[in-house]
């Protein structure tokens, strides 16, 4: 039997979600405690979130085009996950620190990372691309789950620095570890949950369950809803509709507040969908159905905020035009930036192998320089 | 200079204590390192004196220990992790090789990783499986890591102080069979060069024996035995496997014309292979014989009752010396 044609959305999976806005843009009254957490978000704030989500989607389109034009080697879209990412990022305090995996373009954008710098890695000119301390946003980590331990250790450092539970909202610090459904199978994620729990570390585990780990559905990773993983470690855990930016904002603000105030870690499962391919090298038509994609397209996180704004009088043509114009500007900047990115000098490979003088690297750097110089001499 | 006589294990303990005292960012992490003082008692008394947030009994998870140490280092701390035994480092192998070794490079030099990973290693103590291994070459093959191993109490003390001060991650292999060897230690001796340099442990003229860590002891014994037969052997204690102090080795071999490498790890793709390659490249016209190796075999570390047939012994070293001299 073709498992794809049998796709039916699992209503039970949706029952225990925190959702504040329906896919039609209507506010729900099912989670008043979370609704209270976003009550302060006025039209301007909602418009800001809408604009950020739209820009990140535009970034996806532009970056994918650049990859197709041969300007990038690879690109992983965040398409479909803008709701949770922008909602979560807008809940961060300046001093909070985020450890992304490699699809957190939305959070990067809100943290102030120049979007083109996210592409340095995918252009093959950098393994990183930005100053982590400037943005309190760590470099992308490609080994699945490794950085959840770094986040936990960083949070243990925050504790030792005395920056938890002081009551000073400009100092108390939370750390966020972003990872996906596939990563929850990794030992490092589970070890991070152990270390965070026993240390009561101020870290929020933000699991974006986008339903697919490349070609493997979440059923290949778990037989319980993923948020229940956290419970077994004694960590407060919640599942949120990741395509609802407001709910994501509310749930993350609660988790971040718990971390900053000394309440310890939280596990957040953001239930969302990877609307695009895993990367530009992937082909989802080999493993998932059109019906499933259609189901999720009806739950598009950006449409939902637009519908909410429309219902609440926050939408007008001028705003829509401004967002489109900002997207056009982003696209132009991005194309110009990326095309101007030159390959580093070959000898730069020796620059940061070690922080201290290293005899092996020094000898090889010298050999390489002489080898290169030999061609210049031969050409004379 | 005043010195105190102490064991190698105590010298490491004193180095950890001194580092904890002088730098508030230094912290120790590991399994059973607190109240117990570690299974070899190397951290004895440190939690009592420095508290549970600086000397941390970690969950029993090596990847977690190293992974959280990386995060702490990003936040400005200088974690010293204890891996309880050599054979238990592998759950942390991913964190060490894909993260710890590479984050400085990944960040284009913006982030440093001043993390020390202490690993009691080597055999000869009659242990069960996974408690006698020598995995240093696996780490020496990874750029971004320093890999060192002391053989005397003084070196253990000074090299540990310098390893903790290093901005780069250091795999610190402690020769567990020699933890109880005693020697004079000057607790004021710091010497950053020690992390980069071999020492000539015994001067000689007839052949150069190159070794490090736990094999240094048996190599020196072999040199003494050879002296009784009129052979004057030089012994170079590498102290650092990565980076190798090639210059000290080359200077010695150019004088003696002969080189035998001794270590407990398997000879196959071991540190001795790199030494042999460097020597053949840089001492070609000085060599009187091929470089020989006396090392473990390419087998899983054997059961305790036969481990001494696996480890380099005085007899096996002397056999190699005879072969190189007869060439």
From TrEMBL, chain B:
<dbReference type="InterPro" id="IPR009014">
    <property type="entry name" value="Transketo_C/PFOR_II"/>
</dbReference>
<dbReference type="GO" id="GO:0016491">
    <property type="term" value="F:oxidoreductase activity"/>
</dbReference>
<dbReference type="GO" id="GO:0000287">
    <property type="term" value="F:magnesium ion binding"/>
</dbReference>
<keyword id="KW-0560">Oxidoreductase</keyword>
<keyword id="KW-0670">Pyruvate</keyword>
<keyword id="KW-0786">Thiamine pyrophosphate</keyword>
<dbReference type="InterPro" id="IPR033248">
    <property type="entry name" value="Transketolase_C"/>
</dbReference>
<protein>
    <submittedName>
        <fullName>Pyruvate dehydrogenase E1 component beta subunit</fullName>
    </submittedName>
</protein>
<dbReference type="Pfam" id="PF02780">
    <property type="entry name" value="Transketolase_C"/>
</dbReference>
<feature type="domain" description="Transketolase-like pyrimidine-binding">
    <location>
        <begin position="6"/>
        <end position="181"/>
    </location>
</feature>
<dbReference type="Pfam" id="PF02779">
    <property type="entry name" value="Transket_pyr"/>
</dbReference>
<dbReference type="InterPro" id="IPR029061">
    <property type="entry name" value="THDP-binding"/>
</dbReference>
<dbReference type="InterPro" id="IPR005475">
    <property type="entry name" value="Transketolase-like_Pyr-bd"/>
</dbReference>
